[in-house]
Amino acid sequence: MKHREEHQTVAAARGGPLAGRRMLFVAPDDYPAYRVDLTELFSRHLVNRGLSIDWSLHRVDVGPAAIDDRGAERFILPAHKKGGILAKIRNRISNGAQRWGLVRKVARGEYDLVQVRDYIYWGLPFLIAARIARKPFVYWMSFPVLEMRWELAVRPYVPISLLGRAANFAHALLGKLVFYRFLGYADHVVVQSRRMRERLEEQGVARDLMTPVEMGVSTERFNREAVEASRDPRIAGRPVLIYVCSSLFGRLFDTAVGALAAARRRGHDAVLVAVGPLAEHERDALPQTLERHGIPQDAFISTGMLPLKELLSYVKAADVCLSPVEMTRAHEVASPTKLVEYLAMGRPVVASVHYDQNDVVGSSGAGLIAAMNGEAMGEAAARLLADREWAEEMGAKGPAWVKANRDYARLADRVERLYAGVLERQSTSAIEAASQPAE
Predict the structure, then answer these.
(1) What pLDDT, in 10s, does the model give residues 127-179?
(2) What angle do CA 113, 408, 139 make, to 5 degrees?
(3) Integer Cα distance of 128 and 107 in angstroms
(4) Domain 2-216+409-432 belongs in CATH node 3.30.360.10
(5) What residues contact residue 224 under an 8 Å CB cut-off, 6+ apart?
(6) Pairing of the two strands 73-77 and 113-117
(7) What is the mean pLDDT of residues 281-298?
(8) What is the phi/psi pair of residue 339, to 5°?
(9) DSSP SS3 for 218
(10) Which of 50, 25, 55 is nearest to 416 (CA)?
């Protein structure tokens, strides 16, 4: 309580449209939170501008029901126990009971603003409760929920039981009946990209109800001047391609390897640094994969997961950064983070054809766009390797563009204005309703 009172005092002194406001944020993201759009955009920038947040997240650690009170932020946690099916049932009951308790708090008007992210069904009771309390409700759509459920049923990324696939089918089909109608009743909808807004327009959601807020980067952390280039002897004196991904497998990984092969066929003794965990089946098949592409063993380096500083040292040492992204229904609406991170580090990029990547590379001038296959991306990389001065001129354009467009401080400006507008409209509506003469 003391920390919260101190934050409210500081927020009031600072002023600003969000000072002293408290938001409930309900999301399927993990607690403790790790995604940068939560930790940077909300916990850092918006909280520092006076917003207080109660978080209801998916708990992954083990413990009893509790509130982790950090003053401006409170994490409202259900009980979570390890075990078999009974433990899972108890965990779900605890989570559900706590969420319904928050619905009641919303209905009593205990929050100034209610936001639900990426849930299809939990959004409904929180929307209704917000309407009862005459408080604004915002839906934050960071990925296409229904399309991802459908892909997990039709083409799962990991092994899944028939029952699990059936559950994903049912979730997607039932959700389609209510989801887009539900979005139309929100006070505002935040989407991840302009393409996502276009897709929702096709489903009947009004354009002026939606604001794109793309994934961004902290330019304080992704700062070329603060990082020393890697001195890994395996890359010394050789052209370096880099591909960073949270998991290395499938078509994206094949495309990166194919790009290396294509660049080498064009006369460049290039090496590919693949940063991220290499899937077990890809690791087992790696010798055959390299042999099939005619790539020597020493031209491929798999680093696994790295601390950020070490990862950035490899990015700074790279001559070309690769960003292949699939154009599936689920992924075409994304705003890929790694592309913006490459640009923030001042490196030239080769990115595959994709709505947001086309916009970023086209407006920044910091790289080349190629078709989503190894041959095309490798040919583009070879062009950059053949003209280093041209490539460096491209890369040098990246940091300023990111600072102006995708730095989380700039994105926080956009979100702050959005919330302030929603709150102002709600306040105006409440005043007008109160001034209406009783019939």
Answers:
(1) 999 999 999 999 999 988 888 777 777 776 656 677 777 877 787 788 888 89
(2) 30
(3) 8
(4) no
(5) 316, 344, 345, 346, 399
(6) unpaired
(7) 94
(8) -60, -45
(9) coil
(10) 50
Structure tokens at 97: 């009971």
CA distances from 420 to 46, 116, 360, 436 (A): 12, 17, 28, 25
- The label of the residue with tokens 């041209």 reads 390
The domains of the chain are located at 2-216+409-432, 224-404
Name which of 263, 258, 265, 319 is nearest 290 in CA terms. Answer: 258
Tokens of 309: 């500083």
Evaluate whether 2-216+409-432 and 224-404 have a shared fold: yes
Question: Counting runs of H as helices and runs of E as strands, what totals does the chain give?
Answer: 17, 14
- Give me 316's structure tokens: 């700074």
- Joined tokens for residue 227: 């990082």
According to CATH, the topology of domain 224-404 is Rossmann fold (3.40.50)
Q: What is the pTM of this model?
A: 0.89
Cβ pair 380, 255 in contact under 8 A: no
192, 333 Cβ separation under 8 angstroms: yes
